[in-house]
Design goal:
The protein is mainly α. Helix content is 62%, strand content 2%. A two-stranded parallel sheet has the order 1-2.
Length: 164
């Protein structure tokens, strides 16, 4: 039996946050992207490919005068397909897991939306997806400005973590 001091030393369990409909769609499209490239994993590059197809984020890209199809083409040029098809359940890479875990933590959300995944990728600031977004000048400040202009997500703009 553990003492109270030993129980206090145990790490806290990560809060499991469900995906919204748009978040589920992104994860489904991410898996399809991984399958299309014969990859055995789902990485942030697959998530960004999915975000170029998801309605909310696609519209946000367009509102920022960024062609989502150009983002997709840039990603596809950096993400070569594997020769042998992969059969099975693709694993989620550590970086993609970090993005998924970070999305609700940034804004204390009850569900993970597509836009939250995009913001978490931008804040991750490394990897193929983040580097591709930088090529299109899509970084934290430019995204915040675009969301303010389009008034797309006033609730996110009001969160302190986003403003820092």
């Amino acid at each position: 039996m553990q003492t109270p001091q030993e129980r206090e030393k145990r790490p806290e369990k990560t809060r499991s946050v469900p995906f919204s409909e748009s978040g589920r769609q992104v994860m489904l499209l991410s898996r399809k992207a991984a399958e299309r490239f014969n990859h055995s994993y789902i990485g942030t590059e697959h998530m960004l490919l999915a975000l170029t197809e998801e309605e909310t984020t696609r519209k946000l890209f367009q509102d920022m005068d960024i062609n989502p199809d150009e983002i997709r083409l840039s990603l596809e040029s950096k993400t070569p397909p594997f020769d042998n098809p992969f059969n099975g359940e693709p694993m989620i890479t550590p970086m993609a897991k970090k993005v998924i875990q970070r999305a609700p933590e940034i804004f204390s959300l009850e569900e993970i939306r597509a836009l939250d995944l995009l913001i978490a990728i931008i804040l991750e600031d490394e990897g193929i997806a983040a580097e591709t977004l930088k090529e299109f000048k899509l970084e934290k400040n430019t995204l915040r400005q675009a969301m303010a202009v389009t008034n797309a997500t006033a609730d996110i703009l009001s969160k302190k973590a986003w403003l820092n």
